[in-house]
Write a structure and sequence with these properties.
The protein has 311 residues and is α+β, with helices and mostly antiparallel strands. 33% of the residues lie in helices and 30% in strands.
């Protein structure tokens, strides 16, 4: 039963142990490392949990709290229970029940959980979904996540391919950089404000800090024509998945289809480097953006968001 497990709230003294577990978990990425999670700790009240059996750490639950609700995690793209590859379904269910009992004792009454898309799993990790329904949990949202599976042929639309081949003669220059200033200030921030009255999730200072912490995982690619910046894509890279975190172009870049060219270049580049998936993120009701991603070769993957009562 779940009484054999001990649940503890994360404290800074567990920093190395937490990160060591994340590096070996079957469904974790660098987003769950403490030096990533804590870049916005001033905005989220951390309530991450660690599950032990005796002295052995066997699971992590990255989370934050707000009033009597636990979120997994509002500051991250995905969340849930992080596990090693050696635990079975019955044991996973019991340790999650131990988490629920711990949270109940602390006065919480609800968990809001966003699942980790399957293509980020090193090994399949779906042990808890049936339990959520037994616990009278419900799916509150099914996000449409679009990604390219590199094990299949990439179905670029014929129009995209035609323009890509034509653009070879334009003289585009693609650079990889750890300097995000030009893309953020000249393209991303003004274009998001102009088109959507919104801002990037990360400020320039935040993305620069995260790049310093994770220089091999967070990379900026820019495309120029005659030294003029036309478009850029910010990449978040795990061991097996590449994600386009941000992509934007200038009006001149739109005329030259520079962003499409850069996407197709990077899609082919990371395929040649033996990555498993290219993740282009969630689409929320924007059908022109959906069409663009499908024409770049993406398929739809569902990301479920759960609401689980703590009875």
């Amino acid at each position: 039963m779940f009484s054999e497990y001990t649940v503890k709230k994360y404290e800074p003294s567990y920093y190395k142990q937490w990160n060591s577990f994340v590096s070996t978990a079957k469904n974790a990425t660098f987003l769950f490392l403490r030096n990533f999670m804590e870049y916005h700790k001033d905005r989220f009240g951390d309530f991450s949990l660690m599950v032990f059996k005796g002295e052995k750490l066997i699971a992590l639950f990255p989370a934050n709290k707000k009033d009597t609700i636990i979120y997994s995690h509002q500051g991250l793209t995905y969340g849930g229970l992080l596990l090693t590859s050696s635990y079975g379904v019955a044991k996973v269910e019991n340790l999650f029940l131990a988490i629920l009992e711990f949270l109940k004792q602390k006065g919480f009454n609800l968990i809001q959980l966003k699942s980790i898309p399957l293509f980020y799993h090193k090994n399949p990790c779906n042990e808890l979904e049936p339990l959520f329904l037994k616990l009278k949990g419900k799916i509150t949202q099914r996000a449409q996540n679009f990604a390219i599976d590199y094990s299949l042929p990439i179905p670029f639309h014929k129009t995209k391919l035609k323009h890509f081949r034509k653009s070879h003669n334009l003289g585009f220059k693609i650079i990889e950089t750890s300097n995000f200033d030009s893309f953020w200030k000249e393209i991303l921030e003004p274009r998001l404000k102009e088109k959507h009255e919104s801002k990037p999730v990360h400020t320039l200072d935040e993305i620069s800090y995260l790049n310093q912490q994770f220089p091999n995982n967070i990379i900026q690619y820019n495309i120029l024509l005659e030294e003029e910046l036309l478009a850029g894509i910010t990449i978040f890279k795990t061991d097996s998945v590449v994600k386009s975190q941000y992509g934007a172009t200038t009006k001149l870049g739109e005329q030259h289809r520079a962003l499409d060219y850069l996407f197709m270049h990077l899609i082919e580049k990371f395929k040649s480097e033996n990555y498993r998936y290219f993740d282009m993120g969630i689409i929320a009701g924007n059908y022109s953006l959906l069409k663009q991603k499908e024409e770049l070769g993406c398929q739809q993957y569902l990301q479920d968001f759960y609401e689980i009562p703590i009875a």
